[in-house]
Amino acid sequence: MKIAVAKEIEVCERRVSLIPDIVAKLIKQGLEIYVETGAGEKAFFTDADYEAAGAKIISDPATLWGEADIMLKVSPPQEREDGRSEIDLLKTGSVLISFLNPLGNPQIAQKLAQRQITALSMELIPRTTRAQSMDALSSQASLSGYKTVLLAAAALPKYFPMLTTAAGTIAPAKVFIMGAGVAGLQAIATARRLGAVVEAFDIRPAVKEEVQSLGAKFVEVKLEEETVAAGGYAKEISEDSKKRTQELVAEHVKNSDVVITTAQVPGRKAPILVTEEMVKAMKPGSVIVDLAAEQGGNCACTAPGKDIVWNGVTIIGPINLPSSMPVHASQLYSKNITALMQLLIKDKTLQVNFADDIVDAACVTYGGEIRNQRVKDALQAVVV
């Protein structure tokens, strides 16, 4: 069985789907690993590293994609500079494992189904105890949460910690984190390590204990509707609840030196948590880092992929933050994707077992059809 590692061609993608250490372990299991020339360069893994691990380096993308039984990627398939689609390069009947954004871009699932590709989306790994080792969304979100605080600290014209000096006492920075998922919790922990006073908000009351355990104050709003979606994610709430939430957080945003927003809804535009009015009320020199920038942003003033100054407030809208730390991001992703492959490969043979809840949830296309109902619904909405 031939497992291939593609070179990511998306401009802002520096990660690689398998690192040499993991390649060596897979080869010891009797698997053949093929790596596209330069696949690991942006993550500081050379072709020589992969060769030393036992992989075969392939310079021709058409050969790599056309002969692979399982193709491993980080970002969804792209259009190449030569005009060829990566989907069209795949061998009919082969397997693709990658982030696919199937809810945000369901057309990609349609194309994969038409090519008879068995596609497994790393975004759709269920959030269960058994699937933790495969949960790439969580591993990458943790990196984002860490890096976002560093970006905020670098942009803030103040210290984060409280300092007592001969010239007087410096008050600690006030950080307000909106969303206490994996990224938010890592942001809380990082901001606390840097010495900031931290408050955190989430519409899910169940995360209160986790927030407090990290040393932050939990800002709670009581809503008369369900706020937790499948898998433990925050659920999109009604307009009335959004209004009540904004009224509650407005004062906290106003009094904060740094605001970090992390709220995202899979397949939908990110909810606006910080309005223009809230930004106007913030102190000049304050900083907002919007981790939902790729989905439009939680702040009404966010410019995805750009750092801007709006009414004296620096607003950072980073894109693909995990890719800015490609060494560890690739290491974690490699372990996630390898754990998933262990479910699919038995005795060197591919076995797609839909009786397994993880495989069933992650598999988007199989046998020429889209299997996931949420993806089907998203595609129908686009067509209509």
From TrEMBL:
It comes from the Bacteria. GO terms for molecular function: oxidoreductase activity. It catalyses: NAD(+) + NADPH + H(+)(in) = NADH + NADP(+) + H(+)(out). Pfam families: AlaDh_PNT_C, AlaDh_PNT_N. The keyword rRNA-binding does not apply. Keywords: NAD, NADP, Nucleotide-binding, Oxidoreductase, Translocase. It is an enzyme of class 7 (translocase). The keyword Magnesium does not apply. Coiled coil: none annotated. Residues 4-144 form the Alanine dehydrogenase/pyridine nucleotide transhydrogenase N-terminal domain. Its EC number is 7.1.1.1. InterPro entries: Ala_DH/PNT_CS2, AlaDH/PNT_N, AlaDH/PNT_NAD(H)-bd, NAD(P)-bd_dom_sf. Residues 153-317 form the Alanine dehydrogenase/pyridine nucleotide transhydrogenase NAD(H)-binding domain. NCBIfam families: PRK09424.1. Belongs to the AlaDH/PNT family. The transhydrogenation between NADH and NADP is coupled to respiration and ATP hydrolysis and functions as a proton pump across the membrane. This is proton-translocating NAD(P)(+) transhydrogenase. It comes from Sphaerospermopsis kisseleviana CS-549.
